[in-house]
Write a structure and sequence with these properties.
Elements lengths: L35 E3 L5 E3 L7 E6 L6 H12 L1 H6 L2 E7 L3 H11 L5 E3 L4 H5 L3 E6 L2 E6 L2 E5 L5 E6 L6 H11 L2
Protein name: thioredoxin-dependent peroxiredoxin
GO molecular function, one term: thioredoxin peroxidase activity
Pfam families: AhpC-TSA (PF00578)
């Protein structure tokens, strides 16, 4: 029974936490981590400049290596299709700007290439981790693509990307994403 003049207790609304992967890393439905990074050719690129638009971010291990070259060329090949659909595309690696510029020039890439030498954004997106090659264990970029929706949330994540046909698959998924 309530005392005279007392206000009734109202329960606070329940807010669902974003889905988490079993390892606590970025998952579909999470708010995409914001970033501002230097880009090839000079200047900075901020994720905030894509607010209200879909954005594809492909994380690649190293400029001018075979898989990374094919992936970047494929995203460049589809640049007009992404632009027509109103979808931004960015590539991010830990390479320095000199390497990004050389990569862009050598292969005539038109997709902006961002540099995260500190690994801060790579870690925020869960793409910096342990790798193994020829029996050696080391830290590096796990080839991953993240599709961010107009609402700033992760719509889809492709991990351990196989490059062949990947850019086409990402374009189709980005167009379908509400």
């Amino acid at each position: 029974m309530e005392a005279a003049g007392a206000k009734p207790v109202v329960a606070a609304p329940v807010v669902e936490a974003p889905p988490r992967s079993s390892k606590g890393v970025l998952a579909e439905g999470h708010a995409a981590p914001a970033f501002e990074l230097p880009r090839d050719g000079g200047g900075m690129v901020s994720s905030h400049s894509f607010a209200g638009r879909k954005l594809v971010v492909f994380f690649y291990p190293r400029a001018s290596t075979p898989g990374c070259t094919k992936e970047a060329i494929d995203f460049t090949r589809l640049a007009d299709a992404f632009a027509t659909a109103g979808i931004g595309v960015l590539g991010i690696s830990a390479d320095n700007l000199k390497a990004q510029d050389a990569f862009r020039d050598k292969y005539q890439l038109t997709t902006p290439l961002l540099s995260d030498e500190t690994h801060q954004i790579l870690e925020a997106y869960g793409v910096w981790g342990e790798k193994s090659m020829y029996g050696k264990i080391f830290q590096g970029i796990l080839r991953t693509t993240v599709l961010i929706g107009k609402d700033g949330r992760v719509g889809k994540i492709w991990r351990n990307v196989k490059v062949d046909g990947h850019a086409d698959e990402v374009l189709a998924a980005a167009i379908e994403l509400e």
